[in-house]
Specification:
This protein has one helix and eight strands, in the order E-E-E-E-H-E-E-E-E. The chain has one helix at residues 68-72; strands at residues 10-13, 16-17, 22-35, 46-60, 79-85, 97-103, 119-125, 131-133. The protein is globular, with a radius of gyration of 18 Å. The two termini are 15 Å apart. The mean pLDDT is 95.
């Protein structure tokens, strides 16, 4: 897959596909910066430390059966499996799937002003390893 427009991303939470309500998706992976500078070079030296990841999702609100609220609200405070792909095409070297366990640490069921589209935005930290698979 070359450069593309993000129009068909897939996000599942606890095996429930929420892609039909997803309007924005960000998967972030970071590593702690550990300085190990010693005397001699005059330049700082660094090593990678602990890794962490998180998922940020913007969703259109929906309180129907098997929709956003019914899926997310009961999971608050739990760690659940999540998967993320750039497109709904089969998993491949050009469309990897990222899988891990996230802590459902916050949920805002209703967000908006009068006349606005009802939406919710969530940011959940990973709890453990994030894997990347191509098959």
């Amino acid at each position: 897959m070359a450069t593309f427009v993000l129009t068909d991303a897939v996000v599942t939470i606890n095996a429930v596909n929420l892609s039909a309500w997803c309007t924005s998706l960000t998967l972030s992976v970071e590593v702690d910066d550990q300085e190990n500078t010693a005397m001699g070079s005059g330049f700082r030296s660094r090593l990678g430390g602990l890794k962490e990841w998180s998922i940020d999702v913007d969703l259109n609100a929906d309180f129907g059966a098997s929709a956003v609220d019914e899926t997310v609200y009961p999971l608050l405070g739990q760690t659940v499996p999540v998967t993320i792909k750039a497109t709904s095409a089969p998993t491949s070297p050009t469309n990897p799937i990222y899988s891990g366990t996230a802590l459902i640490s916050e949920y805002t069921p209703i967000d908006g002003g009068v006349g606005d589209l009802a939406t919710t935005s969530v940011s959940w930290p990973g709890s453990g390893v994030l894997t990347r698979a191509t098959a």
